[in-house]
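INTERNAL TRANSFER SHEET
From: sequence group
To: structure group
Subject: Palmitoyl-CoA hydrolase

Please process the attached sequence and return the structure record in the designated field. Keep the field labels unchanged so the import script can parse them.
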Amino acid sequence: MTSSHVSSTGSSSASSSIGSPEASLGATCSTALILTATPADALIDVPRHLVVRGAVPGAHVTLAARTARAGGVVWHAQATFVADADGVVDVSRDAPVSGSYRGVSAMGLIWSQVPEDGKSRDVFPQPVLAPLVTTVVAQVVDEDGLPASSSDRDRTSSPTSVSDAPSGHGVASSRVVASERSLVSSTTGSATDAPLRQGPAWASASASASASEQMLTSRSTASTTDAPPKHGTASAPVATSVSFTQRLVAEGVTRRDVREDGLVGTLYLPPGEGPYPAVMILNGSGGGINEPRAALYASHGYAAFALGYFKGPGLPDYISNTALEYFAKGMDWLRRTVRPAHDFVALSGQSRGGELVLLLGATFPDAVSAIIGYVPSALIHSAQNACDPAIGREGPTWLLDGKPLPHIWENNRTASWAPFDEGPPPHRHASAMLTALDDAAAVERARIPVEKIRGPVMLLSAQDDGSWPSSLYSRMVTERLAAHAHPYAVEHLDFDRAGHAIVFPYVPTTQLVYAHPVSGKISTGGGVPDANAIADERSWVAVQAFLAQAVAERAQSQGQS
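Return from structure group:
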């Protein structure tokens, strides 16, 4: 059993200007500014290498990234760097001197993006099969952040300095991608290197093949005079742009709507004949069908079934009174339909889905091969924010054999909604959840009997979870499993300063406050953007390794390779 604390703290230093002030202001133009993005087209979880060449040493170069996401809403971020002695800016090596994020982060221009409409939260493409295209513009600027050829124009605004960057946008003391130092340290030992590990052997070759060999290059010519213009001399702006593409679906992956046997979901299959191990994906209190995660699982070699159970076509509008037998039917259907390798069917769930996958593993242990719980609960909860208003938020969520399962709010002497309901928004749901934990008898009645699970378990939690105390809940699960000598692997990654929204790399992590999709209550998921970005990256690497090991052990137990 392993339990790791993932910290986002460490040492870093800001980049300093190279050369004299005159070099930064006057010698800013070059005959050619070249911007490259490598790979140019790959899966969303592949980091990109952005490099600017051809700048004058010491020049300030601003990179601005724009991505059209769901609904056509443009998300944007920018950062200004100082070119090194060779006139190069390498985003995976260099820290910006100002902009949307701090510190060194190869994908900082993605995770620090904010929506131009100021309110959008959906960061994935619609439909999921569509690509996400990001355009990056590189521009030489003066120290006021204005284009180098426009120094004499009216200065109507000034750039955001590092010290003025929005709270939490920085990686002032961490490296999300570029650092080879592990951000994962064991709670019982010293920090160890944790390089990014490759996926399982059965994963689609298209997920990674030749991606590192792709490169998009853009060259821009500017002033061709022998001597660079002095500060304030009019000339064409020194700028260039390049685009790169992120995809949720690898080449050859197929998608199928499922509307049969009373089930509502979407099945994604890797290319080829198979068989492939399978994963069933369950959403949280927002409902719907989690296609982005299913698409990415399939792109890494898994038959992935995203099963909806409310707020989907033909499904109830609310989570209240959801029968567990529905999910057992979903697992049976998945086995019959795809005949997974080694009869392996894992469950992956987020938030209420994280609670659900643990409950399903305990209720139907022979049907569940492995469990991945993102920000899960150790306890059965009431319907809460996703409730049917006619039943109420203290009504039951889960039914078994037609009977409601006991939940933490039921006959609880200490539970109070006041910390969540009172005061100005955004509200922190976790504050109310903590009041319920003071009634030990109610906690015991609502505890998920995880000791009945017959397979490996992975838990991913956040120490600043605003929705509920997933860090504490995950420890409760691991302690229960240890007390019962659980004979399978148990892994727990607990992310420092991260919040409830742990997904996968590389997506914007800035939108912390939201209106709940069902109740409309303005809440915060907690965390800060840089820590959330670290959690997204590290969790996904760990999940892939966990699944590969679980499949290998399953195959070995069946005497197969």
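Handover comment: Residues 8-30, 150-214, 221-235 have pLDDT under 50 and may be disordered. The two ends are 24 Å apart (CA to CA).
Transfer complete.
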